[in-house]
């Protein structure tokens, strides 16, 4: 196991989603960035440059491991081989945090590489809670579960997403990862108010916040349809929602996600600076 | 009305299938374009992953043709594991069967070369055999020596000039000549390196990889080319860090 005892928790400061092309820039000057998040599945090879870079980064920064392939909402049992690979990575790296998504991506052996939606029913609750129990047991730690971006709804849903997540946290003891961009995207797509969502969200369980960019489209009826692309700057209404959320719950580790059309490092650092401008006064308010 | 993941999956991968009933917009109307977001995410993200993994195939076919081929491939062969970095194992076989490109006989082996490069990139780190250990062996022991090989070592045999095709497209190398080439991939540190081997040299490495002794490998290669000289090939294995230990009997 790496000696990462100095990085047991994520700081109440900005982090970014790590991209290998930024390695040299980050090591030279991370600017306002105090921690990094990696996608677990990119570090499941046996060796080579990805793991060597990760070893260097982990000596210097707290690392958050963010899974995108576990399919926690899947109808089928969790993939035991994949869970074992994850336990191996988490055991070696001893990251400050592990998180995954309220979504599914694997069914009948096919991994679809997208975060697919779930109906919010008693049956889904039971299944997701049991999968989270299994993950937390395999990893020997508490995980965070992230709220999704959704583009449609299930007629069969029996409860709101916020009630669903509150009940999951109660049953499993897991924490939550609040993606403020996902809140904005889903609320626009579901024609609800993102502020109501935040007001109803169990903020006391939030261990991390995500911020990212989205694309704007329209559906066939002319209604706005936002797509969670992680390929642009965070928009102003999402920054406003983020600032209001931090004011309501206090400072939390906050991540800038940028996964497609990844920009040069200074663009990402500027986004992190914007998060710092909101987080730093909030942190000082807690201390005073 | 419940929507199973079996129905969802089938409709996501097949644009002709109707959207499962019970998926709705905020007004309760059937989710048409909203469902297409998921369809698009799945096919585009997997096609992008394939494009990054097979840059030479992409270049040989051109961007548009590659997109069309990738769309067919990801629907027919979605990944069987969340390790997208290794996606595309089935592509060489698909290229052999896919009618529009069947006449491009070299494509499957070029795809095998690109797969092997990625395997080498992600393979376990190993320490190479100290040259002194090899030099210390008396000649008869050297002929009987068997080696443990680095997992990064990859060999792709072909009737086509796959290494020259790769270099022509990735490194502005000279125009490929129609000779068979076996690709030897080693990883001295983090970046895989490719060398073109003659069929005899390819047989030599293949015999060593199969557990044969240096002497046995030499006689296999000599059957193909009586004048085969093992020195440059053994040198490439050593400098590429491909030999990691002499096997103890």
UniProtKB/TrEMBL annotation, chain A:
It comes from the Bacteria. NCBIfam families: PRK05409.1. PANTHER family: UPF0276 PROTEIN HI_1600 (PTHR42194:SF1). Belongs to the UPF0276 family. This is UPF0276 protein SAMN05421757_102708.
UniProtKB/TrEMBL annotation, chain B:
Keywords: DNA-binding. The keyword DNA-binding applies. Gene3D superfamilies: DUF2063 (1.10.150.690). InterPro entries: DUF2063 (IPR018640), DUF2063_N_sf (IPR044922). Residues 5-95 form the Putative DNA-binding domain. One of its GO terms (molecular function) is DNA binding. It comes from the Bacteria. This is Putative DNA-binding domain-containing protein.
């Amino acid at each position: 196991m790496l000696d990462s005892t100095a990085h047991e928790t994520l700081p109440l400061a900005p982090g970014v989603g790590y991209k290998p092309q930024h390695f040299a820039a980050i090591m030279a000057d991370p600017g306002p960035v105090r921690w990094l998040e990696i996608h677990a599945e990119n570090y499941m090879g046996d060796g080579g440059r990805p793991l060597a870079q990760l070893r260097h980064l982990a000596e210097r920064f707290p690392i958050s491991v963010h899974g995108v392939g576990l399919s926690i909402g899947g109808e089928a049992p969790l993939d035991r081989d994949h869970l074992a690979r994850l336990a191996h990575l988490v055991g070696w790296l001893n990251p400050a945090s592990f998180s995954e998504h309220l979504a599914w991506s694997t069914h009948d052996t096919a991994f679809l590489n997208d975060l697919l939606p779930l109906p919010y029913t008693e049956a889904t609750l039971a299944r997701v809670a049991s999968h989270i129990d299994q993950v937390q047991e395999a990893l020997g730690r508490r995980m965070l579960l992230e709220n999704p971006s959704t583009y449609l709804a299930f007629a069969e849903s029996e409860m709101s997403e916020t009630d669903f997540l509150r009940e999951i946290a109660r049953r499993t003891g897991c924490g939550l990862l609040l993606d403020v961009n996902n809140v904005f995207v889903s609320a626009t797509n579901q024609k609800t108010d993102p502020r109501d969502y935040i007001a109803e969200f169990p903020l006391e369980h939030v261990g991390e916040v995500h911020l990212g960019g989205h694309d704007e489209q329209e559906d066939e009826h002319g209604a706005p349809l936002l797509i969670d692309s992680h390929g642009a700057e965070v928009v102003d209404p999402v920054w406003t929602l983020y600032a209001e959320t931090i004011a309501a719950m206090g400072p939390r580790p906050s991540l800038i996600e940028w996964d497609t059309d990844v920009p040069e490092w200074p663009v990402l650092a500027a986004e992190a600076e914007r998060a710092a401008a909101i987080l730093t006064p909030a942190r000082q308010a807690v201390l005073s | 009305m419940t929507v199973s993941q079996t129905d969802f999956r089938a409709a996501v991968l097949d644009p002709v299938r109707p959207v499962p009933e019970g998926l709705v917009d905020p007004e309760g109307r059937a989710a048409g374009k909203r469902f297409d977001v998921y369809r698009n995410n799945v096919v585009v993200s997997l096609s992008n992953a394939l494009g990054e993994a097979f840059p030479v195939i992409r270049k040989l076919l051109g961007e548009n043709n590659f997109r069309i081929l990738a769309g067919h491939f990801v629907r027919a062969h979605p990944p069987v594991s969340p390790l997208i970095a290794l996606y595309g194992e089935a592509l060489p076989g698909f290229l052999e069967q896919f009618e529009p490109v069947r006449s491009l006989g070299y494509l499957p082996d070029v795809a095998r070369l690109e797969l092997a490069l990625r395997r080498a990139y992600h393979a376990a780190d190993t320490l190479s055999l100290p040259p002194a250990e090899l030099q210390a062996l008396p000649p008869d022991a050297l002929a009987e020596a068997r080696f443990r090989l680095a997992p990064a070592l990859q060999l792709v045999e072909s009737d086509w000039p796959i290494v020259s095709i790769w270099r022509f497209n990735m490194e502005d190398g000279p125009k490929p000549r129609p000779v068979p080439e076996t690709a030897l991939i080693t990883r001295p540190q983090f970046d895989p390196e490719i060398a073109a081997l003659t069929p005899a040299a390819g047989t030599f490495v293949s015999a060593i990889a199969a557990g044969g002794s240096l002497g046995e490998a030499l006689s296999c290669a000599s059957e193909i080319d009586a004048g085969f000289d093992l020195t440059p090939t053994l040198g490439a294995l050593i400098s590429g860090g491909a030999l990691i230990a002499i096997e103890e009997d």
